[in-house]
Every structure is written in structure tokens, then in C-alpha cells.
Automatic annotation (TrEMBL):
Organism expressing this protein natively: Mesotoga infera
A GO cellular component entry from the record: extracellular region
Keywords for the protein's UniProt record, in alphabetical order: Hydrolase, Signal
Sample GO molecular function, one term: hydrolase activity
Gene3D superfamilies: alpha/beta hydrolase
Protein's recorded name: Poly(3-hydroxybutyrate) depolymerase
Pfam family, one: Esterase_PHB
Domain of life: Bacteria
């Protein structure tokens, strides 16, 4: 009798574990050769995919020296993918080693990718084509998310291929930089407006909010102020300020821009005590080092912003 109860309890426990585990999606490694380089993407599929359903696709680009696995496990997008039912793709940049110390070419930055003139924007467009062929992607609901150097690639993709993406998110990044204040390269705003949600910490030393030289030892780059760069993009997309809100007792400032009467907006979150980290991230070394006391969770706000936006 005792043995039967133990077996039954074990089966119930295993069943509970399987139910919990079934709520998690699966990862697949997708390889694509581009310009003679074999490049890796981790594709995360949500747990339930109906036979003929088309799913949103969210590209998530790591920061300088990052990789796909760390991004997948720490940014918080994977968990939302499982809950909300979209595909999350984590591409990798390039570098002298296989899957570490990677970078993206954002025109004025960074490292290996810039030095070797890697055409990352074109690579992502080709990758998108292949993912559409191999996965149930809703081509009207493709989104971009980029942190730091990955945000520079996001700006570049929005600038050059606005017709492909329904919305984009930028965390701790800039569309402009150069060797000095007199040598600034700017990624131009797109001819077709793309909804965007942007986060930047006012205490960021890597890409200074108020402008100046980066403190990163890997890159000596001058950045114009973030509000100045965003204002140029706002003007380039013929948008105007709609409202400004102070949140969390002044810890967070939110500005919304758009075109009155049109379904197009840009949301710009300034984290007053924020540094060069992903707001609200709970995993990874960066989360432990963050100075911010705000409760803003960038991943949740990004998906809320993306959810109902699609190409027309």
C-alpha cells in the first residue's frame, strides 16, 4: 500500500512538473551564412502554436560584447513570449571569437563589426526572409528591440527598412556618435514613420544622456545628448509632443510624441536615476549593478507598446 502511495505521489509530482514545464517554449538554433560568415540565431517558440496560425516575431539584439544566449536568458522577453504567444529571435553579431565579444555595425560604432564593415542591417533583412520561410511569422507584426550597440542596429534598420517593421524599442542607445563633437555620424530618421518606445538613464556613463564622451574603455566615442538626437528623429518623422508625464514621484519622465489623429506614437522614458542597464531586469550581472530605484519594467512596457501595432 505504501509503495502504491509513493508511486502515485511520484506520478502526481511528475505530472505537475510536466504541466509547469509545458508552459515554457522551446529554443531552436538557426544558422545562416551571410557574406561568407556562418551566423547564429536562437529562435524561441512559444509553448502553443496552432497549425495555421501566424505569430508576431520580435527580434532582440544584444549589446556590445553580448551574445544570444545571455540576451535570451536575462532581458525578460523570453518569458513574455511564452505568456503572450510570439516568436522571439536572438541573433548574434560578429567578433574574432565564435560567440563572445560580439558587436554590431551601427555606422559609428562598434568594435569588430564596424572595423570589418559587416553589413548587419542587410544580414537581418536576409535573416527575416529565412525566418518567414521556416516559421509561422506574421509579416505585418515584426518588431525590433535593441540594447546599447544593439539599439544602434535597431535605429539603422528602422532608418533603412521602415516598411518591414511594425514598431521598435531602444534601450540605452543613440542614433548618433563619432570620434569627436565635430565628427558626428547620424543615422537618419526614416521616410516612413515607425512607432518607437525608448528608454534611457540620465546617469548613463556609457552613452551619456546629456552628451559627451563614452566612459567605455573599449570605445572612445562622442555622443550628442539623447534628447537632442531624439528631437531630430521626432522632427524627421513630422511628429510633435503630445504630452509629458512625471511618474513614480519624479523618478521617471515620460514624453509621448505623435501625429494628432494618426495611430503613430513615440514614447520616451527617461529614468532619472538610471544608468546603462535594462530597466526592471531581474537577471544577469547588469541587473545587480543597476543604480535605479524605479519600478519601470522595460520588457513589459515594450510588449504592451508592440501588442496592437501592425503594418498597414
Amino acid at each position: 500500500m505504501l509503495k502504491t502511495l509513493v508511486i502515485a505521489a511520484t506520478l502526481i509530482t511528475m505530472g505537475f512538473y510536466l504541466v509547469i514545464a509545458s508552459k515554457k517554449g522551446v529554443d531552436e538554433t538557426f544558422w545562416l551564412n551571410h557574406d561568407g560568415i556562418d551566423r547564429k540565431t536562437i529562435v524561441h517558440l512559444p509553448p502553443k502554436v496552432e497549425d495555421d496560425s501566424k505569430l508576431p516575431l520580435v527580434f532582440v539584439f544584444h549589446g556590445l560584447l553580448g551574445n544570444a544566449n545571455y540576451t535570451k536568458n536575462t532581458y525578460g522577453i523570453t518569458e513574455i513570449s511564452d505568456r503572450e504567444g510570439f516568436i522571439a529571435a536572438y541573433p548574434e553579431g560578429t567578433g574574432p571569437l565564435k560567440s563572445v565579444f560580439l558587436s554590431w555595425n551601427g555606422d559609428f560604432c562598434c568594435s569588430y563589426a564596424k572595423e570589418n564593415e559587416i553589413d548587419d542591417a542587410r544580414y537581418i533583412v536576409e535573416l527575416l526572409k529565412e525566418l518567414k520561410r521556416n516559421y509561422p511569422v506574421d509579416e505585418n507584426r515584426v518588431y525590433l528591440v535593441g540594447l546599447s550597440n544593439g539599439g544602434m542596429l535597431t535605429y539603422k534598420l528602422v532608418s533603412e527598412y521602415p516598411e518591414l517593421f511594425a514598431a521598435a524599442a531602444i534601450v540605452s542607445s543613440s542614433p548618433a556618435g563619432g570620434a569627436s563633437e565635430d565628427e558626428v555620424c547620424r543615422i537618419e530618421p526614416p521616410p516612413k514613420p515607425v512607432p518607437m518606445i525608448i528608454f534611457h538613464g540620465m546617469l548613463d556613463p556609457i552613452i551619456p544622456y546629456h552628451g559627451g564622451y563614452s566612459s567605455a574603455s573599449e570605445e572612445t566615442i562622442f555622443f550628442p545628448s539623447i534628447p537632442e538626437s531624439i528631437d531630430l528623429w521626432i522632427a524627421g518623422m513630422n511628429a510633435v509632443e503630445l504630452e509629458e508625464t512625471s511618474l513614480e514621484g519624479g523618478k521617471v519622465l515620460l514624453k509621448k510624441y505623435g501625429r494628432p489623429g494618426e495611430d503613430f506614437e513615440i514614447h520616451f522614458y527617461t529614468i532619472v536615476d538610471g544608468d546603462h542597464t535594462w530597466p526592471g531586469r531581474e537577471k544577469g550581472l547588469d541587473a545587480l549593478q543597476s543604480s535605479s530605484k524605479s519600478s519601470v519594467k522595460a520588457s513589459e512596457l515594450i510588449w504592451d507598446f508592440f501588442r496592437d501595432r501592425r503594418l498597414e
